[in-house]
Amino acid sequence: xxxxxxxxxxxxxxxxxxxxxxxxxxxxxxxxxxxxxxxxxxxxxxxxxxxxxxxxxxxxxxxxxxxxxxxxxxxxxxxxxxxxxxxxxxxxxxxxxxxxxxxxxxxxxxxxxxxxxxxxxxxxxxxxxxxxxxxxxxxxxxxxxxxxxxxxxxxxxxxxxxxxxxxxxxxxxxxxxxxxxxxxxxxxxxxxxxxxxxxxxxxxxxxxxxxxxxxxxxxxxxxxxxxxxxxxxxxxxxxxxxxxxxxxxxxxxxxxxxxxxxxxxxxxxxxxxxxxxxxxxxxxxxxxxxxxxxxxxxxxxxxxxxxxxxxxxxxxxxxxxxxxxxxxxxxxxxxxxxxxxxxxxxxxxxxxxxxxxxxxxxxxxxxxxxxxxxxxxxxxxxxxxxxxxxxxxxxxxxxxxxxxxxxxxxxxxxxxxxxxxxxxxxxxxxxxxxxxxxxxxxxxxxxxxxxxxxxxxxxxxxxxxxxxxxxxxxxxxxxxxxxxxxxxxxxxxxxxxxxxxxxxxxxxxxxxxxxxxxxxxxxxxxxxxxxxxxxxxxxxxxxxxxxxxxxxxxxxxxx
Length: 559
What we know:
By secondary structure, this protein is an alpha/beta fold. About 35% of the residues lie in helices and about 15% in strands. The strands form three sheets. Strands 5-4-6-7-8-9 form a six-stranded parallel beta sheet. Helix 15 links the parallel strand 10 (about 395-400) and strand 11 (about 425-430). The longest helix has 26 residues, at about 120-145.
């Protein structure tokens, strides 16, 4: 029998903010749908295997923050379950296509599901996004052409190596995605290995000029020297070519999602990444046409849209070149796009081999493609972990580590509010670099025993006794390396599986299911005056499975 309650569901919010009943169903559905969704995406992509325009479209990304396609599927499946449990549901959506699907389905089945569509004035916003992006890429093209000297790759030299990286403000001082690698290459005089920067749009264009000038002094090869004006023009007019994908697509179970797919394809939300991806593709094509031999490429690989352009280009035009994708970060299962799929290998939009930073991640990477070639390479950005000083008496009693995703962070802080009532306990909060504390919470009445610290995470963890962290962040893994007592609030159902899927024994961490349980657990630890075990041998065995040490042998991947 159906409940007599009425429930309001604002689907435009992050899933962690949904009402309890809906949130539990939604997350269960999302866990159950990952594999089927990935296979379905592969099936609708079969006719576009070599089409770069198709592969840069956001619905194909499987990325929850770039595309709402999977989110829409989870909404529809959640509504199916809810319709058998709740009499009256009011749903708020911001997609006209999703609105139409729910309305037709509800009317057909005579369900009490009311849908409210939040209309957005997209046209003005999209014109601005597209115009800003076109200006950025042409500005970048002409700036690099005029401010830097072209590095001419030797056509008679077969050992040329290209390493993809990102050019950000921090790059002015050091290469920050492959820490220490530029110094190693310089020391070895490996002058045939080049970093190829991808620039990220900045509010101040003068910052870009500063970065360009700084990188020009080092072994950085600018792809803009190998691109033509017509390439920029072709990439920037991508939005004019999307109309060819306005068609009917294969049903997802009983749902016709064609309108949602088409709505996303013609959207400009990811326009900058799409242009960048096409330029990566053109870059590879132009190198090939100039008969420049490339021994190998290493791509900073998050399976983003820009990655697909690079990989398709080099695997198509350099079929004898080794293409590696380096995942130099700590992977957690939350983000399914990080684990490549079989259809992506078939289309050659992923590297031929993936390099992870530890043995523990190999199994995870093969979630959707068991034959994926996965190697274990150096954890360049985590070598500091091998220098950990295991301290018994930690100065920081409780450290709250935020994710950089506002909805998660607000939820975690909501849980932690009750911890503030524990007397004489200082609580340190570590915001994520991409999301400062003042953008999360503006409450001036924040508890006095809370300290916000922007100190380096590793420095904080070295001094921390109890660490509290959850969500799609590798920080949970770092906490264990520093021998902290790790408490994981289960805000999202995936929080239960993040470390389990890495074969980390549950005895090494504590899953917490509500605010009251969190307070009780902390009180218990404090009351017992729990002393951390200084098991250096056991700790380093654990570290070795998650963070591969840099050696001369595994550095050879890069040259």
